[in-house]
Amino acid sequence: MKSLYGVIGSPIAHSMSPLIHNDAFLQKGVDAYYHAFHVDPEELETAVAGMRALGVNGFNVTIPHKEAIIPLLDRVEDAALQIGAVNTVVNRNGELIGYNTDGRGFVEALKEVVKLKDKHVLIIGAGGAARAIFYTLALEEGVQIDICNRTVSKAEDLIKEFSLERIARSITVDQAAREIQRYDVVVQTTSVGMHPKINDIPLPLKSIKHHAVFSDIIYNPIETKLLQEAKSIGAITQNGIHMFAYQAALAFEIWTGKFPDTVRMKKLVEEHLG
Ligand code: ATR
Question: 127: CA distance to ligand 1 center in Å?
């Protein structure tokens, strides 16, 4: 019998997850179908009960349910618990288990363009996406990180919460802009520059470190103003399509035990957005 997977969120109509997962099922010879389900917050509990009752094999979780779903699951892996967000659920013999593939997805994508050992990393932002990325880069990869956020206290709280004062510090956006030449890798996790405000930039750029890598998790537009400017002064850049593909690939692996072709996934997304 065909297996059933999906994604729950709101809004969900423009999700590209069905496109890449259904293609990956075909590519990998998995007899399964992936569907996007619109679920409003007040229906989350019922929706999860429905997934359980119907024996749905697994599903992704997106905005606004990544935190709220945690108490509704039977088990949540430690990294997702620490991050405080689940984006992937697998149904193992009736037990719903939550994972977070966002942080790991981002880092796997980043490793395609830079070796992280001994690199100085700046994370711009301290929201939900930054949290997953910071957790993975700092705790799992042991990278030295500065975080700059409009609301400085949020970055400070994040570092304190994970007891990472040893390898991470909070700085102001102004300080990050002044000292941008120090960073080998700059990770942009805020919504600044996202469609429709495509001319916004989270910090001004003058000169940057030679061979610096700039990675922005935004993929609409495909190239943010920050990436355009960084590229024009010599940076290696990576847009949000890479993280999107890798978080999906890692979810696919949790569900099927097979790792899909991420290059193909990225191409499909690019074609869809382009
Ligand atoms: P997400 O889950 O996508 O990370 P979030 O948790 O709401 O969303 O976090 C949004 C991030 O973008 C935060 O770092 C936020 O900064 P604040 O903590 O100061 O709110 C940042 N952000 C959003 N709009 C911004 C803006 N106009 N200028 C600067 N930072 C902004």
Answer: 6
Catalytic residue among 28, 66, 154, 197: 66
State which ligand 1 atom lies nearest to the alpha carbon of 200. Answer: 27
Which ligand 1 atom lies nearest to the CA of residue 190?
A: 12
Dist. CA 248–CA 105, nearest whole Å: 8
HSE on the CB side for 119, CA within 13 Å? 24
Structure tokens at 232: 């024009």
Q: What is the ipTM of this complex?
A: 0.97
In this structure, the residues whose C-beta lies within 6 A of any atom of ligand 1 are 125-130, 149-151, 154, 189-192
In the chain, the domains with their CATH numbers are 3-100+242-273 (3.40.50.10860), 104-238 (3.40.50.720)
Encode pLDDT of 83-125 as tens digits.
Answer: 999 999 999 999 999 999 999 999 999 999 999 999 999 999 9
